[in-house]
Specification:
The protein is mainly α. The protein has one domain. The model has no long low-confidence stretch (mean pLDDT 79). It comes from Ceyx cyanopectus (Indigo-banded kingfisher). GO terms for molecular function: DNA-binding transcription factor activity, RNA polymerase II-specific; RNA polymerase II cis-regulatory region sequence-specific DNA binding.
Length: 164
């Protein structure tokens, strides 16, 4: 009969050593109580940070929604302004055409009437001619002599037929 000793078997030696761990060795290989407490504090700190991040994200999302709403409102306002500008441009164009027609009618009506110290009315001197006419009618007291009264009456008759 052969008797084998476990001391010669490598597996038995490892198993024996494993079984002979002391309590300190077990504590060193497992979490110590202080490690668990430290991990618990770290978890609490991480949970706090997660909560703060969630709150910050919620605030950012609310700010983004508000910003998107403001952008949408601004875009609507811009569209309204563009539409209003288009209408104003069309009105200006219509007024310009009307003014052009009136100025041509005035030039034709006053073509034979000469104001003192001025050439006959034309497109080139139209503004100066109109300014002089405006001055004459605004300051009629300066034009009280019979010659000027006749001139003012001639102008009135000449422009009488112009439809404004």
């Amino acid at each position: 009969y052969f008797f084998f000793s476990l001391s010669g078997c490598p597996r038995a030696t490892f198993a024996g050593k494993k079984g002979k761990l002391s309590g300190d060795d077990i504590l060193n290989t497992k979490f110590k109580t202080s490690d668990v407490l430290e991990n618990d504090e770290e978890i609490k700190q991480l949970n706090k940070e997660i909560s703060e991040l969630n709150e910050s994200n919620s605030e950012m999302e609310a700010a983004m929604v508000k910003l998107q709403s403001q952008i949408s409102t601004m875009e609507k306002n811009l569209k309204n302004i563009e539409e209003e500008n288009k209408i104003i441009e069309e009105q200006n164009e219509a007024l310009f055409l009307e003014l052009s027609g009136l100025s041509q009618a005035l030039i034709q009506s006053l073509a034979n009437i000469r104001l003192p110290h001025m050439e006959p009315i034309s497109e080139q001197n139209f503004d100066a001619y109109v300014n002089t006419l405006t001055d004459m009618y605004t300051n009629q007291e300066c034009y009280q002599n019979p010659e000027n009264k006749d001139l003012l009456e001639s102008i009135k008759q000449a422009v009488k037929g112009i439809q404004v």
